[in-house]
Amino acid sequence: MSLTVSDIEKAIDFYTSVMGAELEYRMGPFDAAEMPAEEDGRDWSEAHINVSGARLQIAMLKITDNLSMEMIQYENPVGRQQPAENYDVGSRHLCLEVNNLEEVVAYLSRNGCTAMSAPILMQGAPCPDSKSWYVLDPFDNQLELVEYL
User: Fold this and answer.
1) Residue 34 half-sphere exposure, CB side, CA atoms within 13 Å?
2) Residues 28/57, Cβ–Cβ less than 8 Å
3) Which of 23, 55, 91, 142 could form a disulfide with 31 if both were Cys (CB 3.0 to 4.6 A apart)?
4) What one-character DSSP code corresponds to residue 103?
């Protein structure tokens, strides 16, 4: 899982202090302008990550023992400052299983998140019975919280 963020310092702070993630490592900044061009003339970042002229930083956050999340901040080029909408091809959201949905949503709301209208109850569907609630993190990234009943 990877999220592109506009402010890596604030994102690391939120995900470690509020969400309980652990910073595993940081890298960069890397700047394509400071790296040798590829044999075909493309700069390093265009050839390897499909972003020409990139300057970026990376942080890896451990969410659980078997789940890590990469965060990337592009200092150049500066992209859209709002995440893609849920219906955009290539959009993404982080879905986390929780034990007490209402308690978690209240906690996140006190810590800079915006909760959507109400939980979604799924019963008798092809998936296990559950409640889920969408919230936006302080950077407008969508989080889905699911409690299995």
Assistant:
1) 7
2) yes
3) 55
4) H
The two three-digit tokens of residue 98, written as one number: 């929780």
What is the pTM for the complete model shown?
0.84
b/e 116-140 (16+ beta carbons within 10 angstroms → b): eeebeebeeeeeeebbbbbbbbbbe
Burial per residue of 56-93, b for 16 or more beta-carbon CB atoms within 10 angstroms, e otherwise: bbbbbbbbeeeebbebbbbebeeeeeebeeeeeeeeeb
Torsions phi, psi of 11, nearest 5?
-65, -45
| C-alpha–C-alpha distance, residues 73 and 6, integer Å | 6
Which of 137, 134, 138 is CA-nearest to residue 146? 134
Query: pLDDT for 108-128, tens place per residue?
Result: 999 999 999 989 998 987 888
- What whole-number distance in Å separates Cα of residue 42 and Cα of residue 86? 32
